[in-house]
TrEMBL record, chain A:
Family according to the record: Belongs to the TRAP-gamma family.
Membrane disposition: Multi-pass membrane protein
Chief site of localization: endoplasmic reticulum
Lineage: Eukaryota, Metamonada, Anaeramoebidae, Anaeramoeba
InterPro entries linked: SSR3 (IPR009779)
Organism expressing this protein natively: Anaeramoeba flamelloides
Pfam entry (one): TRAP-gamma
Keywords: Endoplasmic reticulum, Membrane, Transmembrane, Transmembrane helix
Transmembrane segments: 39-57, 69-89, 140-162, 168-184
Name recorded for this polypeptide: Translocon-associated protein subunit gamma
Example of a GO cellular component annotation carried by this entry: endoplasmic reticulum membrane
GO biological process: SRP-dependent cotranslational protein targeting to membrane
Keyword Membrane included in the entry's annotation: yes
Compartment annotation: Endoplasmic reticulum membrane
Function: TRAP proteins are part of a complex whose function is to bind calcium to the ER membrane and thereby regulate the retention of ER resident proteins.
From TrEMBL, chain B:
Signal peptide bounds: 1-17
Residues spanning the membrane: 153-171
Organism: Anaeramoeba flamelloides
KW Membrane (keyword) present: yes
Protein name: Translocon-associated protein
PANTHER family xref list: TRANSLOCON-ASSOCIATED PROTEIN SUBUNIT BETA, TRANSLOCON-ASSOCIATED PROTEIN, BETA SUBUNIT PRECURSOR TRAP-BETA SIGNAL SEQUENCE RECEPTOR BETA SUBUNIT
Length: 188, 189
């Protein structure tokens, strides 16, 4: 093979390698949630933890005022764990939905201005944002339902033999951990 | 004859004069829907009915013997109490909230009520109805879990459904928008 061809081949390989690296860096960047997303996931996690807390102080007759520090501490920890699960699933769903649309979301790196290019870019951004909303809402729905089912199974069928406080801690901690662990296996 | 007639009249007036006298009937009742367990509060209600035609004075209710302090503790009120006066054809009530601390069986007998028909008169006694034998067992951890608790489950289900419906509606709304935008972009290609 001539040196010219070898040089061209090397350049093509380098370009492809750089594209892969760029995509990987973008993926890693998108993998981290934004501050808004973190706050949303945490808030929804707190609400999801408050629902079984109501059942514990009404059915298991835990004293609300005396157990308030325990409720608060466990809810905050489990909300943090649950928020990681929410982001994992929304990240996975977003990439899947972006591929399904069949639209190229990468910015064109040309110096020439294409007619109607700005409008197209704006529409792509809108599409990406609606896909993000869809992924986040589906993640919240799926993970919340999954979390509630596991909490109820643990609280009333598996860990009910323990004292009410231990039952509360175990059922919420185990449920949030299972949800987050299963969500992390999806993105691997 | 006249003297005999006057004596007979006096005797008759004594016989037919009404003497105002009070008379107490006491009811002792336990206000529970299910049998109480240890460390669970229950209420005893005493109702004193004055069925006589005169007031009763210095009424003293005594029932501490049925609830010894080593087994029972009172919440908010004492078992023994007193009233200065209960008018005729009226009643008085006294409620006590108690808790038993140990497992066991007790016969809750009648309470004793002492009263007087006149402010400085002799003490008269009345006994109340009794509750009978009660077995106090500890509450098992699964007991509240097994009972229906319908109202709590309904509240939980309604709130959970509301919380889950919001992301579902958001998902449906964004799906429509996504389809429209994706179709527009594909047409331009």
């Amino acid at each position: 093979m001539s040196t010219k061809n070898k040089r061209k081949k090397k350049q093509r390989e380098e370009l492809a390698f750089r594209e892969v690296e760029r995509e990987r860096a973008q993926t890693l960047r998108l993998r981290k949630p934004t501050t808004k997303q973190r706050m949303l996931y945490f808030f929804v996690g707190l609400i999801m933890n408050a629902l079984p807390t109501y059942l514990f102080f009404s059915i298991y007759e835990m004293d609300l005022l005396k157990s308030l520090p325990l409720f608060g501490f466990v809810s905050i920890i489990c909300s943090i764990i649950l928020s990681m699960g929410y982001h994992n699933v929304s990240f996975f769903l977003k990439h899947r939905l972006l591929k399904k649309t069949g639209v190229n979301f990468q910015k064109q790196r040309t110096k020439k201005k294409v007619a109607g290019g700005e409008r197209e870019e704006r529409q792509k951004k809108q599409l990406e944002s609606s896909i993000t909303t869809q992924a986040v809402s589906l993640s919240l729905l799926y993970n919340s339902l999954f979390f509630l089912v596991i909490v109820l199974i643990f609280a009333f069928y598996i860990t009910w033999i323990f004292e009410a406080h231990a039952n509360y801690i175990l059922s919420l901690a185990v449920a949030s951990s299972i949800v987050t662990y299963i969500s992390s296996t999806k993105i691997q | 004859m006249k003297i005999l007639f006057v004596i007979l009249l006096l005797l008759a007036s004594l016989v037919f004069t009404e003497v105002e006298q009070g008379n107490l009937i006491v009811e002792k009742d336990i206000l529970v829907t299910t049998l109480p367990h240890t460390e669970e509060e229950f209420t005893i209600l005493y109702t004193l009915y004055n069925v006589g035609n005169g007031p009763v004075y210095d009424v003293r209710l005594q029932d501490s013997d049925n609830f010894p302090k080593d087994k029972y503790s009172t919440e908010l009120s004492q078992i023994d109490t007193n009233w200065d006066q209960i008018e005729a054809e009226s009643n008085a009530t006294h409620a006590v909230i108690l808790k038993r601390h140990s497992v066991g069986s007790d016969f809750l007998g009648p309470a004793t009520v002492l009263f007087k028909n006149t402010p400085n008169g002799q003490d008269l006694t009345s006994t109340s109805t009794y509750i009978g034998r009660l077995n106090f067992t500890p509450k098992s951890p699964g007991e509240s879990r097994k009972s229906p608790n319908w109202e709590h489950w309904i509240i939980f289900s309604v709130v959970a459904a509301l919380v889950l419906v919001i992301p579902f509606l958001l998902f449906k709304k964004s799906e429509k928008k996504k389809k429209r935008l994706a179709m527009n972009l594909r047409k331009k290609k």
